[in-house]
Design goal:
heterodimer; A: alpha+beta; Sufe protein. Chain: A; 7 helices; 3 strands; 50% helix; globular; B: alpha/beta; Aspartate Aminotransferase, domain 1; 2 domains; 4-stranded antiparallel beta sheet; 17 strands; 41% helix
């Protein structure tokens, strides 16, 4: 089972879905992972109903952080930005599928952090981060 | 059931002889406690089995070290009842914790017209950092006077607060000389009503009392690992999260940044924002195991035991002719300070040491308090989880011996 996830992670890291920044956009935010310097910029096109129509991102980082951004981006299309608030770390863990050690959790959740901090601010993100582990 | 003999078995140092045939009676716990093997072994295990830097490596050792270091932080969070682990900052000790607040919150918020209100019974660590800052910023540093029994003059406290320009109150939870336990919760309420914040020096209380920072409603609270069974070189600054978020950074370097360019930097999230550089990893981990040890014994039981031993010592010493004790508050910690008529405190300590009894002599980092008491130095016997009534008896016998050397 681990092999499947490893392959999936590598596939997303090699062929990053929704790569490239959107202009114009209704959401534009970037974040860093201070532990290793990974960076991520996320842009979204959001319609008048608050539904995410398009995702575009660019970043630099390890396979885990890039794959998680690619996978999360696919999840976001069609989702209301408001509902993104309900996403938690477990969503990311389920997508990644392999067990992550404490320092790697930061890599995997950089994409979600960028979305949540950009949309709702640092405190909401810290509340999510402090939940379930 | 609190079993002091069984507890003593955990402390290797207590089994040794102080001099050739004189066993050690360690009564200098307010300066620093001894360490149980459960703590010593974990420091050893860290260096033997999983030493690496924290927050950096992807390798297994760094992961293990990071988990243990952060695990210790969460144990401390639970131990002091903080709302979030992000409110628990590792420092070098109580002193550094106070300096951190002075150099960040203090530097940012204190103006010429402001008053910082300390007390006459403070340890130098809660006076000097503010004198340094006052000489630079020009605010006034004032002190709550003491009543004859060694308690704070609460009327004077209220009067000074009512003048309206106090921005910060500094108070020790438990005096390291008088043993007075100050009404910190009430003081915090009064400070907040007057628009001031309160910083609590809890170096002598966290090791001894059940304590909850949210109940006390302290804005900042500082204490050290080494007085509560952990290693030296590590301490805690607790701060309310919204205050910590707004405070400017202090020391710059690795770990405290989110992003750095040649033009500038973005500070890291709490608590790392205040933890520049490689921390004292083994020491922080040791604090976590010290907390485990204390919790296993239970803080209310520890408090009851120390109160029992200290009350006995206070009574025996007060009954002795030629001995003057200092500090007579009803609520007292595990310290008895005294002088011996005709024998200087240093000589008393030397004479006691020859009998195997280790005590502190001097001003105990509280020179202003000693000036207030009208003495240059005192002797201090201080007790902890492994102290016994028999040890107090040895102290009293040794004091009878010391009295013979009166000038």
């Amino acid at each position: 089972m681990d092999d499947f996830y490893r392959e999936n992670i590598l596939d997303h890291a090699r062929h990053r879905r929704n790569w490239g920044l959107l202009e114009p956009n209704q959401f534009d935010h970037h974040e860093h992972n201070p532990l290793c310097g990974d960076s991520l910029r996320l842009t979204l096109k959001i319609d008048e109903n608050g539904v995410i129509q398009e995702v575009g991102w660019a970043g630099d980082g390890c396979a885990i952080s890039q794959a998680s951004a690619s996978m999360l981006g696919e999840e976001l299309v069609g989702m209301r930005l408001e509902d993104a608030k309900k996403l938690d770390k477990q969503v990311i863990f389920d997508m990644i599928g392999i067990s992550l050690t404490i320092n790697r959790v930061k890599c995997a959740t950089l994409s979600l952090k960028t979305l949540i901090v950009g949309a709702y601010g640092k405190q909401i993100w810290e509340a999510i981060e402090d939940n379930n582990g | 059931m609190y079993n002091v003999q069984q507890i003593r078995e955990d402390f290797p140092i207590l089994k040794q002889f102080h001099h050739d045939d004189v066993p050690l009676i360690y009564l200098d716990n307010a300066a620093s406690s001894q360490k149980p093997r459960q703590v010593i072994e974990q420091i050893d295990r860290y260096y033997r089995e999983y030493h690496a830097n924290v927050h950096r490596g992807i390798h297994k050792l760094s992961e293990q070290a990071t988990e243990a270091y952060e695990g210790a932080r969460k144990k401390v969070q639970r131990f002091i009842g903080a709302k979030s682990w992000r409110e628990v900052i590792f420092t070098r000790g109580t002193t550094e914790s106070v300096n951190l607040v002075a150099q960040t919150w203090g530097r940012e918020n204190l103006k010429v017209s402001d008053v910082v209100l300390s007390t006459v019974m403070e340890h130098h660590a809660n006076i000097v950092p503010w004198q340094i800052l006052a000489s630079e910023k020009g605010f006034s540093l004032r002190f709550v006077p003491l009543n004859a029994d060694g308690t704070l003059d609460m009327d004077a406290y209220k009067r000074i607060l009512a003048e309206g320009n106090v921005k910060l109150v500094l108070v020790t939870h438990c005096s390291n000389v008088l043993a007075t336990i100050n009404p910190v919760q009430e003081m915090a309420k009064l400070a907040h009503e007057a628009g001031a914040l309160i910083l609590v020096d809890a170096a002598q209380s966290v090791p001894h009392l059940p304590l909850n920072v949210q109940t006390l409603d302290a804005d900042f609270l500082a204490f050290s690992s080494h007085k509560m069974l952990g290693a030296t070189g590590v301490g805690i600054l607790y701060g309310k999260r919204d205050l910590l978020e707004e405070m400017p950074v202090w020391q710059g370097g690795g770990d405290m940044i989110a992003e750095v360019t040649l033009e500038g930097f973005v500070a890291n999230d709490l608590p790392y924002k205040f933890e520049a550089g490689t921390p004292s990893i083994a020491e922080a981990i040791s604090l976590g195991y010290a907390v485990d040890y204390l919790e296993t014994l239970s803080m209310p039981d520890i408090h009851a035991h120390c109160q029992n031993v200290t009350a006995y010592a206070y009574q025996r010493l007060s009954d002795m002719a030629g001995i003057t004790t200092y500090g007579h508050a009803k609520e007292r910690g595990s310290v008895v300070a005294f002088t011996v008529e005709g024998v200087h405190a240093h000589d008393v300590a030397q004479l006691l040491d020859s009998q195997g009894v280790a005590v502190r002599a001097g001003h105990h980092c509280a020179m202003p308090l000693h000036q207030h008491l009208g003495i240059s130095a005192s002797v201090r016997a201080s007790f902890y989880i492994y102290s016994t009534l028999e040890e107090v008896d040895v102290l009293v016998r040794a004091l009878h011996h010391a009295k013979k050397f009166a000038l």
